[in-house]
Amino acid sequence: MTEAVGRQGQQSQRGDKATAEGKARKRGGALRIERVHTTAGVHPYDEVRWERRDVVMTNWRDGSINFEQRGVEFPESWSVNATNIVTSKYFRGAVGSPQRESSLRQLIDRVVSTYVAAGVEHGYFGSDEDAQVFEHELTWMLLHQVFSFNSPVWFNVGTASPQQVSACFILSVDDTMESILNWYREEGLIFKGGSGAGLNLSRIRSSKELLSSGGTASGPVSFMRGADASAGTIKSGGATRRAAKMVVLDVDHPDIGEFVQTKLREEEKIRVLRDGGFDMDLGGADIASVQYQNANNSVRVSDEFMRAVEDDAQFGLRARLTGEVIEKVSARGLFRDIAEAAWACADPGVQYDDTINDWHTCPESGRITASNPCSEYLHLDNSSCNLASLNLLKFLGEDGEFDAVRFTKSVELVITAMDISICFADFPTEPIGETTRAFRQLGIGYANLGALLMATGRAYDSEGGRALAAAISSLMTGVAYRRSAELAGVVGSYDGYARNAEAHQRVMRKHAAANDAIRTLHPMDTGVHRLATKAWQQCLKTGEKNGWRNAQASVLAPTGTIGLMMDCDTTGIEPDLALVKFKKLVGGGSMQIVNQTVPRALGALGYPTEQVEAIVEYVAEQGHVVDAPSLKPEHYEVFDCAMGERSIPAMGHVRMMAAVQPFISGAISKTVNMPESATVEDVEEIYQQGWKLGLKALAIYRDNCKVGQPLSNAKPKAAEAEEPKTVVVESRPVRRRLPKKRPSQTVSFTVGGAEGYLHAGSYPDDGLGEIFIKLGKQGSTLAGVMDAFSMSISVGLQYGIPLEFYVSKFCNQRFEPAGMTDDPDIRIATSVLDYLFRRLALDYLPYEKRAQLGIFSADERTEQVADSYGSEVDLDALRSTVEATPAAQEQAQSEESTSAPLAAGSSTELIELRQGKVADAPLCLTCGTKMRPAGSCYVCEGCGSTSGCS
């Protein structure tokens, strides 16, 4: 009843605002909103089954609670993971207070009501009925996970905070100290609001140029240090994620060589410091001493430079103020340096300047010089872009057909909502607000492409996969721009359109021409492409008459957190990570499951139910489809993933990006993964092919190239051990700390007349985690040595060294005090350490492990003697409590690598356990879970935190 009254109140408020409708309209028309998903007279909330859940999020490594809110309300269809992430990330209000949101209804109402009210106020709707239909349709799509706005919308809209809706910002910096210091300030404000920023530093004079005072300029790289330190201290979005930033430098800047080498030198520093015993894990105590780690670096390359690389010609580096060439370098040598740095540490990426600006809708207002941190948003300096992404798998029907008509209507609704948000949005700086309101850049995109392709029986790296992806992308952007032209007829074109009309129309024609060049291979592709062609034709016709409401319409973002919110199997344009995934369960716990797209794909390929079940069972056991029963080898490629037995080659990723890029206003957030065995020449080839294929931006990541990356404790399988390589990549285990409250026990003991105490602390899920030994008087040498010894053993246990390893090493140590003990299970000890580790083995190791070490309790020895009654007693077996045989010790040591139980906290860790290969993904700073790739960023499946701006 309360909710119904609330909704009526909202509609009443909209009715009051509707009186101002005529004043708000710039033109005579108004939008008519039709129902697509909803039913007249039925609210979307009344069509779903709701349930109450408890959200308790723990650090899976030590069991500590990161977040807790009980009794939250969500639809039954929402997964536990989506529930956890939305509750912890997006619900507003202090936890535990009555003001705290506790239902998905409250969250959606908070956002949707703000959008509807702004749409009414600014004259978007033809009537109150249109406004209500818009409200219901938007609510239904969010409720059913059809699409999601970017995270800042959920953080800020409808709250007392500034209504910042944009995730992506591009800043500007000039060659003055005032501008440089203002750059630091603006970045801080953006990070605080939950977003990321990028900028080009090429206007700053190089270290090879003079100041007006006669001194030498510092150069842009020196100023990057200050900005990097500032970013490292700011957590954006409250405490939701770290600052994300992009730094770009033109390839003709005289300091380009130093810029290329910055992160490479820091990676070398990380290796040296780590080997020296410093804590260089991500978030470690000493990592702050390393510079340039908070930004992605990219080199802005021109066609002139790339042609010089091909011709092995000289290339001029130009002074910033005069433009004159002050130094000539080998283009091929500089390109080689870029590739070597990327091969060694993944930075820098490249941005193709001439391609970017050839697709620029507003060149009369300035060049595009930079991007946001993940490289998908490219437009004017001091501007922003708000994002939203559609869940493609929601448009795949049970009949295996993609519902292009419903997709079209959904794009129309979402792009309308996104444009409305600019009417009420706040911005971190006034220049950004002015530019965004004048050009109204939007970034509609999608997620779950990889899952869609697999579910329809298409390989990601195939002509069929690329054809469907291109057709869907073309349809999305064509419909978005068509709706933008229709909006221009209702509320006016963007302010900068008149000056850029000719250029904007030219880019629209380029998109339409690229659409005509799509080669379809399947009836589904043909149907989608037919609608896309119609959308572009209407777009050009309507735009020529009205202009366009938005200078930019689409991007492909990482969709990290919002992808998890929508329960997507894949993020952005990415393929599936692996065929077996990690899933959280209601009531706690987790399990590994075969991705649901696998049986769907097998059905699309024509396999009968019995064979599908057998193949799925095989995949669950093996983690891949190679040699699966009844599966045809020609279908293996359909199940190729980013990781696994059959991983997609690097050029497969590049070819997919190239197929989609002509239909995206901005660019594509994606990192091209390369195997550890890839060479510098392979990186050069990828960067050259990206230029030739018309990409706007490209970044690569070679496995294990980041020496400072925190790794999990998954160990390679012996059968998969490889021959030593030229490049040796070292890794460190991760410390699993004990929670503040933990179970423990204290044992008093006497060995050879010496009295002492053993205190042992355990993890809540069992397993020894610390010991403290009191022996001798306080302040004595013996007491001090035992304290230090205890700390050493405790830290080792927390870093994953198995207890049985310590037992095998310290049992049978012989020194005084030694002799009789007061422990009925261990009557004689050869030393205090011999006693202590036998006691620990009895208390914390299973019988099988102790039997290998020859350690038994008194009852177990009695049982052994009883079993041998009537025969000759094996005295050696009875003596085994005093001295384990060398063979037993060797056997215990041989099992060191497999004795500790391995657990997974995310899909990435599950893949590591299956493949025996440690991934380079970072650990989540919030919950300690290993993250998984999402575009050019990483996302945590446990809590939704991201390493970037998605």
From TrEMBL:
Q: State the UniProt keywords alphabetically.
A: Cobalamin, Cobalt, Disulfide bond, DNA synthesis, Nucleotide-binding, Oxidoreductase
Q: Where does the Ribonucleotide reductase class II vitamin B12-dependent N-terminal domain start and stop, copy by copy?
A: 55-145
Q: Could you tell me which residue ranges the TSCPD domain spans?
A: 739-843
Compositionally skewed regions (Polar residues) per UniProt = 888-904
Per its UniProt record, what Pfam families does this chain match? Ribonuc_red_2_N, Ribonuc_red_lgC, TSCPD
Q: Does the keyword Disulfide bond apply?
A: yes
Q: Does the keyword Coiled coil apply?
A: no
Q: Known Gene3D superfamilies for this protein?
A: 3.20.70.20
EC assignment: the record states 1.17.4.1
Per its database record, what is this protein's job? Catalyzes the reduction of ribonucleotides to deoxyribonucleotides. May function to provide a pool of deoxyribonucleotide precursors for DNA repair during oxygen limitation and/or for immediate growth after restoration of oxygen.
NCBIfam families given in the database record? NrdJ_Z, PRK06556.1
| Family in the record | Belongs to the ribonucleoside diphosphate reductase class-2 family.
Q: What is the protein named?
A: Vitamin B12-dependent ribonucleotide reductase
Q: Give the organism's phylogenetic lineage.
A: Bacteria, Bacillati, Actinomycetota, Actinomycetes, Pseudonocardiales
